[in-house]
Specification:
It is built from 20 helices and 6 strands. By secondary structure, the chain is mainly α. The longest helix is centred in the first third of the chain and has 45 residues, at about 80-125.
């Protein structure tokens, strides 16, 4: 059916509503006991008057915790409102993806990347993740640079810099390499006036440098005051250890995952459907990288064939997206999974259009766009349908925890978790400390951080986020042990992760058993709910 011109605004609104509802429907997903918990507990620590790095350990930039604290302060510490904030941010990302695509390929084609992005966010929600705000700020920075390429107005350089400064407050490492990519584009674009056929090289270098300065001033305007504040209130060595040293060393060693490959399809140890999904993931993982490479090649080809102006706005818009996408791909090089591929995939959802739209045959273009869009949405849509089916057939049930009673998960898990929360609330007071740890602290994947939030109990140590490579060391285990003694912690909740192993150093024992021996000597098992053991002080 052909959409009439006068109906286009209503059709656009309809698609935006569909996209929002898709993302909003993810709000019922099961709690994420670790990643979501990091953001929630950090936000609550801020509300309690504590400082990141000094009063609680984290490797993330601080802004997400302050935004979450503000939301909790206004609406109350309920998981629904916290997730609603993430949903609004995800939807905003999709809108900016649409705007970026429409600037190059028109509004009609721009809905393809919009819907792809909405489907991915709906099936793989990233609640409470600072990375989505960082992505949003980077994409807005790209949008301002698009305006600069179109109008050659210097104010857009400053605004683009402001956005990178904001992204640095959420994901400092992302902002670092994106700043380089955007500075490169700002410096070399050197948009000449339409009346000019050429400019002296010296003049263009000076102009490019000045453009870069304006852009950098925007970054500094936002980033420097926050950086100076934390340098003033937190020891610089602590900041260096948390924000730079640990992420560049231990994190890579203890969190890295092997690159997926389509060859996993031939693994006979798994079922056919699992192998098909591994094949899909193996293709999807490299699809953005392939498209970025082809984009660069066809940019060169179109310029050489004089189908595209070397210094024109379309050239620089696609070149900028190519650089941003390539840099976003860094997110998937350590934790090589779909979740960490999302930033690069958002850019792919735009740039693949450039590869299709150069084909001179309209029918072939439509077939390819629809085919590729359906393929890249295959697994997310499958997950979405499966999740909905599990709720409708009561395979997944809602949690009884008051702060998360709208979330659904597998029945056995929910039953055990509800009993766990009930036990803690029955046997401890609200002003009492509990400890959420692991049955083994010499090797593990993570701990249950949401437990503190859902049971509404106090945290006894600044190292509540148990991280392999940190908690597995003698220094930190000794510190946690001393904190448990000082806070007189009567109940420990230990998560058994012995059957979970990742192909990295987290699965190798550190041979440090200080904390485990302390627990064994001073606590005994008083209850067990699924994978959770409750230990009580003698």
């Amino acid at each position: 059916m052909k959409i009439r011109t006068e109906d286009q605004p209503y059709f656009n609104l309809f698609l935006f509503v569909i996209g929002f509802l898709l993302i909003f429907s993810s709000i019922t997903h099961s709690i994420n006991i670790y990643d979501e918990g990091i953001s929630i507990l950090g936000s609550l620590q801020i509300l309690d008057g504590k400082l990141p790095y000094q009063d609680f350990w984290t490797i993330y930039a601080p802004a997400q915790f302050y935004i979450g604290a503000g939301f909790f302060d206004i609406f109350g510490d309920h998981l629904f409102y916290f997730r609603l904030l993430s949903i609004l941010i995800d939807f905003a990302v999709c809108i900016v993806i649409y705007l970026l695509a429409s600037k190059i390929y028109g509004k009609k084609n721009a809905f393809i990347p919009f819907l792809i992005s909405a489907v991915w966010f709906s099936a793989m929600p990233m609640f409470g993740r600072a990375v989505t705000v960082g992505i949003l700020a980077v994409l807005l920075s790209n949008l301002f640079l698009f305006f600069f390429f179109e109008k050659n107005d210097k104010k857009y350089l400053f605004l683009a810099g402001l956005m990178i400064g904001i992204s640095a407050l959420f994901r400092h490492e992302m902002a670092g390499y994106i700043y380089g990519a955007e500075f490169w584009a700002v410096f070399f674009s050197g948009m000449p006036n339409k009346t000019e056929t050429s400019e002296p090289l010296k003049y263009r270098i000076i102009k490019g440098f000045l453009n870069g300065v304006i852009f950098t001033l925007g970054v500094m305007f936002i980033f420097v005051p926050f950086a100076m504040y934390f340098l003033n209130v937190v020891d610089i060595n602590i900041l260096y250890e948390n924000l730079i040293k640990f992420p560049l060393s231990e994190f890579r060693e203890y969190r890295s995952l092997p690159l997926p490959t389509p060859l996993n399809f031939f693994d006979r140890n798994t079922g056919l459907m699992s192998r098909i999904m591994m094949l899909w993931e193996g293709i999807i993982y490299y699809l953005p990288l392939l498209s970025f490479g082809l984009t660069a090649y066809f940019l060169y080809w179109r310029v050489r064939k004089k189908k595209l102006a070397l210094n024109g706005e379309i050239f620089w818009k696609e070149m900028l997206l190519f650089n941003i996408g390539l840099n976003f791909y860094n997110q998937a090089l350590v934790r090589s999974d779909l979740e960490h591929l999302i930033p690069a995939f958002l850019i792919f959802s735009i740039l693949f259009l450039s590869l299709i739209l150069i084909i001179p045959y309209p029918k072939i273009r439509k077939i390819l766009i629809v085919t590729i869009a359906l393929f890249v949405m295959l697994l997310p849509l499958t997950r979405k349908i499966q999740h909905t089916k599990q709720i409708l057939t009561n395979q997944h049930i809602s949690m009884n925890a008051p702060k998360a009673n709208f979330t659904f998960a597998e029945k056995e898990y929910v039953d055990n978790y509800n009993q766990l929360i009930s036990f803690i609330k029955t046997n401890t007071s609200q002003d009492e400390y509990i400890y959420s740890g692991n049955t083994k602290h010499d090797k593990f994947i993570s701990n249950d951080l949401m437990l503190y939030f859902l049971s509404d109990r106090k945290i006894p140590t600044k190292y509540y986020e148990l991280h392999p490579g940190l908690t597995t060391t003698e220094k930190i285990q000794s510190q946690i042990m001393n904190d448990l003694i000082e806070k007189n912690v009567n109940y420990l909740v230990l998560l058994n992760q012995e059957t979970i192993n990742e192909p990295n150093k987290s699965s190798v024992s550190s041979n440090v058993f200080i904390l485990d021996e302390f627990i064994r000597k001073n606590y005994y098992k008083t209850a067990e709910f699924g994978s959770y053991l409750i230990m009580k002080k003698y």
